[in-house]
Design a protein that fits this description.
By secondary structure, the chain is an alpha/beta fold. The chain has six helices and ten strands. The chain folds into two domains: 100 residues, Formyl transferase, N-terminal domain (Rossmann fold, 3-Layer(aba) Sandwich), CATH 3.40.50.170; 101 residues, Rossmann fold (3-Layer(aba) Sandwich). Helices cover 32% and strands 25% of the residues. Strands 3-2-1-4-5-6-7 form a seven-stranded mixed beta sheet, sandwiched between helices. Strands 8-9-10 form a three-stranded antiparallel beta sheet. Helix 2 links the parallel strand 2 and strand 3. Helix 1 packs parallel to helix 6. The longest helix has 24 residues. The protein is globular. The two termini are 31 Å apart. The structure holds glycinamide ribonucleotide. Glycinamide ribonucleotide (GAR) binds next to helix 1, strand 5 and helix 6.
Length: 207
């Protein structure tokens, strides 16, 4: 399965997807890394792995829809069948999301539907949560919503600050993102409306 990865920064989840090439039975190929930020660290990671890169600077486009259409054109030119958001920090327009419906996935550093949006780890700590985690999901127009494919749980530890918690959540992100891509590539994920199924089973009821 050909995949495109969209980034804005560090690209550690991109790196996890790059490194998954070494896993036995991995059948995906990253055909494009697209960034809206020219000096994103993830671009360097892609170049080091000999993966095609493309920078589309949102500031050069009149509005979000025109920017998103330029991204779709670049992605489609590569033949990518799945688009993975990996720390892509731009809101996407509804036409873009509808165009890629059920072929567009995201990783978010909380157990959705809890803690949508930004500054997640500090908000988790401020709320006194004992557990948090991360989620891979298909993207829907409303921010950080959509059928959940995989989640991992992370325990909050005494003395955690936002950075230590983010680091432990990130370790789990690096496990579940490649795993979700593998499940999709192997044809084991189906989507029924707002519900994702793995091997026909509902793992995360959407209620
Ligand atoms: C990750 O923690 C990812 O879950 C988060 O940004 C970070 C990107 O790190 N994404 C979001 O918050 C999206 N709502 P990375 O660039 O090292 O992969």
């Amino acid at each position: 399965m050909k995949i495109a990865v969209l980034i804005s920064g560090r690209g550690s989840n991109l790196q996890a997807l790059i490194d998954a090439r070494r896993d036995p039975g991995w059948t995906s190929e990253i055909v494009l890394v697209l960034s809206n930020v020219a000096d994103a660290q993830g671009i360097e990671r892609a170049e080091k792995a000999s993966i095609a890169t493309c920078v589309i600077d949102h500031r050069e486009y009149a509005d979000r829809e025109i920017f998103d259409a330029a991204m779709t054109e670049a992605i489609e030119a590569t033949g990518a069948e799945l688009v993975c958001l990996a720390g892509f920090m731009r809101l996407l327009s509804t036409p873009f999301i509808d165009h890629w419906r059920d072929r567009l996935i995201n990783i978010h550093p909380s157990k959705l539907p809890d803690y949508k949006g930004l500054n997640v780890h500090q908000r988790v700590l401020d709320a006194g949560e004992t557990m948090t985690g991360c989620t891979v999901h298909f993207v829907r127009p409303e921010m950080d919503t959509g059928p959940i494919i995989l989640q991992a749980t992370v325990l909050v530890q005494a003395g955690d600050d936002a950075d230590t918690l983010a680091a432990r959540v990130l370790e789990q992100e690096h496990l579940i993102y490649p795993e979700a891509v593998r499940l999709i590539a192997d044809g084991r994920v189906t989507v029924d409306g707002e519900q994702a199924l793995i091997d026909g089973n509902v793992l995360y009821p959407n209620d």
